[in-house]
Specification:
about 1050 residues, mainly beta, Immunoglobulin-like, Ferric Hydroxamate Uptake Protein, Chain A, domain 1, 22-stranded antiparallel beta barrel, 5-stranded mixed β-sheet, 54 strands, about 45% strand, receptor, transmembrane beta strand, transmembrane, TonB-dep_OMP_SusC/RagA
Length: about 1050
Amino acid sequence: MMSRKINKRILLSLLLCNCSGALFAQQVKGVVKAKSDNSPMMGVSVVVKHKTVGASTDFDGKYTLQPVAATDSLVFSYIGYKSQTVAVKGRKEINVSLEEEVTTLEGVTVSVGYRTERKTDLTGAVSVVKVNEMMSTAENNPMKALQGRVAGMQVTDNGGPAGKATIRIRGIGTLNNNDPLYIIDGVPTQGGMHELNSNDIESIQVLRDASAASIYGSRAANGVIVITTKKGRNGVLKVDFDHYTTVSMFHSRMKMLNANEYAQVLWKAAVNRGNDPNQNALGIHYDYTTDANGHSTLNNLYYPRQYFDKTGSPMLPSNTDWFKEITRMGVTESYNLSVTNGTDKGNYFLSLGYYNNDGLVKNTDFSRLSARINTDYKLFGDVVTIGENFTVNRTSEVEQPYQITEAAMIAVPFIPVRTQDGKHWGGPVNGLPDRQNPARLVNDNKNNRYNYWRMFGNAFVNIKPIDKLNIRSNFGVDYGNFYKRTLNHSYISGFMEEGKEKTFSQLEQSHWTKWNWANTATYDFELGKSRFETLAGMEMFSQDDINFSVKGTTLALETPEYMWPNLATGGITGGGGATGYKLLSFFGKINYAFDNKYLASATLRHDGSSRFAKENRWGTFPAFNLGWRLSQEAFMENIRNTVSEIKLRFGWGQNGNQEIGNYSIYDIYDPYYGVTGDYIWSGTGIWNTSYDIEGKGSGQLASGFRRSRLGNKDLKWETTTQTNFGLDFGFFNNNLYGSVEYYIKKTKDILVEPPYAGIKGEGATQWVNGAGMENKGWEVSVGYRNETKGGLKYDINANVSTNKNKVTELPESVVNAYGGNGKWDNILGRPYQSYYGYVADGIFKTQEELDQHPIQNGKGIGRIRYRDLNNDGVVNEDDRTWIGTPYPDFIYGLNLNLEYKNFDFTLFLQGVQNVDIINDVKKHTDFWSVVDTYSNKGRRLLDAFDPVTNPNSDIPSVAYTDDNNEGRMSTYYVENGSYLKLRNVQLGYTLPKEVSEKIKLSKLRLYVSGQNLFTIKSKSFTGKDPENPNYGYPIPITFTMGLNASF
């Protein structure tokens, strides 16, 4: 009886508790959106903190939770976004916006080696690029936007409107192609990144060491850059529009002589030589006096009233600024429109972009029209996923005429752009070298345009036959069609003339088809605390290139509409050819993690290339990695908030290289037909294979072939072996983060085509394996991000890297072809492309210095003094030594990001330190007679040494002739190319949500920015820009205004 009463009481108590819980529990619902664009987020995890109650957001970002107590807190989390914890406080509706800033590494995934992996599991040297930082720079080439942002990656800008750049990862690893491999949505390619629309990019990873890149095998020796383009996202229809306008101008320019200064320097050169300056071929008259000590003073000078061209048309002496005549302010316009939408069954991303850059050099431009469609759809639930990523680009460009900036530098200033009657171009007169009118070159070049179509993309199918097994087939195509038309016009320019017979129209066309088919299977599973990720696959690659050209000479009319080869009357010639190669690969990888602390990975790739003979066709490239997440150890648990992440890494791996000609294993014979005897007897056909053996003196001749190359069937894979030691760290909940790398990169059996000795006979060039190279270096990246109590968010990050290069092996027969004196001193043990020459030791300023110096042909007061390094009393070629290296001690970058309320600010600095550059422009700025005597010179000559008026100058005195051979390679031309540049600064403002919604926008951001606004350079550098020290396209200062809008 007693037990029944007790049971009833217990049952009553439980009922009362349940009723009480029901009374105080409630339902909570809401919507989760992305803070960046206010779009709904599907699949966000919403759980009650410390309880098992949870839910996920639906297609519209909505969720419902029940039961939830008024005192509970909800945790919102999603991979790639910052988690949020929100107190309920009795509310029935809670809406949340998630930030795309990740403060831990656990949720970050990266695309490496045919799959995605968690960043915490990576054991190779992989840099994950912050795409939002990259996009703050108004660049059409995404690789240029990475300059200074990735440790160990050096980007060199060529300055042109197309935005082309040279990329080097961990230095120069070979003697031929050093470009990295690009993987775009799983499809490999090399180069052409200026054709890719930056706005289509979702993520970029840079694989720097062999252990990370070895899965890509034969083309990954120079590093791999993995690019993933944007995909559709589940949610409502979203439309984004981006636009910016940029104006560009010169950062700096060489100061050249004007007409009056030019005549002064010419007078000085003649006086220093002891000549009568009035006996000059240009007809310039000088009024000068000479004192008792023989020192002359110029009082006045007079140009002739006019000059005449070849036809007698007058040219009035002018004061032409040729650099100004060929340049202008550049204007760039960029427009991008994208549409994205999706459901739980599939999604799509569409984009259309237009970019146009009217370059700084007149009549140069680059335009790109791009369209992209990325889709994926699920079939049979999520068992099968099919999709594609496809883009088509049409680019058009007019490049600058060859070395036009040098032509503008050396064009004499007193020659006018046009003759007085306007009929002809201004040009050289008697006494001047035959140099072209730069304005004419730019004008005649305006129709020399190339057009290029590129279609790039892939289609894929992904099958999940059972849980955790994924089978994927990915077929990629890269098709390009290049067309260029070059027109050559007749002209009269001073005494220079090309008549109608020299006019021509040349058409060049080439197209190539590359296809890549990769088939992979992945299977991931867990056994207790052990986690395995496995991958196996095979890949086929094929490339076929076809090119042809036709040229017609002598055209009656010179309008672009008429200038076609079929209308030429002077003859039509043509040519063409086809080539190609194939690759077949098998590969596998296994990742292992125990208790998320101890990591290991092993990779093996087996590549076969048609470029090698069957005996050496296959190469095998292994790699392995080890990692230890020290921060996950139990003894670190109490300080985990302080020491958030410590991971030690070790990697070793090999990559191959097969960058040789497609037919280098074969002997090559070229046809040199001598179909008419006139060609032979005129003396122009000395290399022909035809011979008038019967002495007819006319008619048809027998034809033959000439060997142009020796084959080498012993060629084998070039192999790069790399060892990497790494440390990843994070402190204070990963607010302070970074990594440190040290690597040793050795390449052996380098494929090289060395110069050959004439004794070997005609056509003896041959590819061989015979060189070795080593690179060592450090890479350090560090950053700190946080938020002040006042709401200021900041993220500052920096990187610095070093690389030391040396050549370790070269074939004995050609070792002297790569630098040195050809006797005992060679490049071995020194950096590749090191400079070899004389040591300039100031200039002779007194007769006593001349008398005490060893024998040096051409020495004199005001001339360069060269050191006698071997102390034999004579300065000659045996006194040359190694005088510089083209590689910097270190490169670095610093990036600052600030956000406060609706404002954002970005500042980016980039630089290189202690790099030797050859300032070849000094031959024009510091000397009258080293090159192009009578061409224009730099204003530095006005400060040249003079024992009376300028005895403290270090610039050699003006010399009429180069008796001292001062154009020789010497330290006089080697300068410190260190610089620090303000690459980018940007200020943006996002309209408040309530304002943007009134104009039917979900987001509107306006910004202004500037690039290359200032440069700090070494005081010893005398050129215009250490980044582009010689005659390349000038790197401009730019100012940009733009907007980002979402609908």
